[in-house]
Amino acid sequence: MTLSFESDLPPSEAIDAAPLLRGIVDWVEMETPSDRPDLIDVLLDSVEASFEGLPVQRRRVPGRDGCGGQLILRYAPAGVSGAPLLFMGHVDTVWDAGTLAERPVRREGDQVFGPGIFDMKAGSYLATETVRRIAAAGLIPPRPIIVYLNADEEIGSLTSRDTIEELAREAALVLVPEPSVGAAGTVVTARKGWARFSLVAQGVSAHAGGNLADGRSAIREIAQHILQIESLNDTEPAASFNVGTVAGGTRANVVPDHAAIEIDMRVEDMPTAERLIAEMLDRRAVGKDIALHVSGGLNRPPFVRSPAVHRLYEATCALAKYLKLPMAEASRGGVSDGNFAAALGKPVLDGLGCSGGGAHALHEHILVSTIAPRAALMHAMAMSKTFQTLAVD
């Protein structure tokens, strides 16, 4: 697709990455573990302050149930109407407070390391800064722009899902600056859904030497379920299963009367999800005199590459070509808040953040060389009427 786009869209070489990197590092150096709403508020307060004096509506959703709050920024200058463009990211990380003291931010060539920098403070910062700069310059976008920052994504978005779905229903298109995966320029156009389950077996304890036959081993029961569940990886092409934790027993000479496992399930489509969830919840004990309790369910629905997603991706390819930026797509087993929006039938493009690697790992980092290209792409997506017409109108 070769098209003419607006001539005032800045190319990536016109964007200075240095101040953007400083802003990203500032966010990283404000630690925001999911279980510390007080620290998350420090970051969200700082973000709000950066919009002081600008014509941007700020709405704070208070945290609850031990989770941090949420921040909604809406830029809709006079004369702009219609369904908004929604940037949607999170600011919470998996890293405990104090991690920075052990692993401070550092740069090695093109790589900048820091806890939470890749997943996903770099992307969330770029989306936020894109809208701040647009508002500060008094630019008039084709439609309103919303930036949504969530503080409990890493623990399942349990308190923020209602807000996410409220904003997604209103939006014309949803852009998620989660980290880019694969080669530079790659975006995400599909993600598996995610379900979690707990299986708890209750047996009968007994002396392993003198009364073995009187016992009913909960570990033996759970072991059989582990083998059955893991074997589904060979028979269910649209799903994957991982038994991630195992616990049970007290001593080697006691028949164990309690054992438990936790299971992670990823699934590509809702019909498969519904069938497998029902089968999981309907599991029955194999052994005699064993009680089996199964709990759990779907946390995030699958993000399917729908015709709406395909259209948005094709429009992004055309825009990237105009900006002379690389562009490719990938699907992921990991989930994001984009799953919720895609399940509502919205056009969603994910993975718009910086390239790098090491999400949730000690070597977490971004590539500085991808900051300016991603900033240019986000600005162009927010400001180009041509792109938005191709994507949704």
From TrEMBL:
<keyword id="KW-0862">Zinc</keyword>
<dbReference type="InterPro" id="IPR017150">
    <property type="entry name" value="Pept_M20_glutamate_carboxypep"/>
</dbReference>
<keyword id="KW-0378">Hydrolase</keyword>
<dbReference type="Pfam" id="PF01546">
    <property type="entry name" value="Peptidase_M20"/>
</dbReference>
<feature type="domain" description="Peptidase M20 dimerisation">
    <location>
        <begin position="189"/>
        <end position="282"/>
    </location>
</feature>
<protein>
    <submittedName>
        <fullName>M20 family metallopeptidase</fullName>
    </submittedName>
</protein>
<dbReference type="InterPro" id="IPR011650">
    <property type="entry name" value="Peptidase_M20_dimer"/>
</dbReference>
<dbReference type="InterPro" id="IPR002933">
    <property type="entry name" value="Peptidase_M20"/>
</dbReference>
<dbReference type="InterPro" id="IPR050072">
    <property type="entry name" value="Peptidase_M20A"/>
</dbReference>
<dbReference type="Pfam" id="PF07687">
    <property type="entry name" value="M20_dimer"/>
</dbReference>
<dbReference type="InterPro" id="IPR001261">
    <property type="entry name" value="ArgE/DapE_CS"/>
</dbReference>
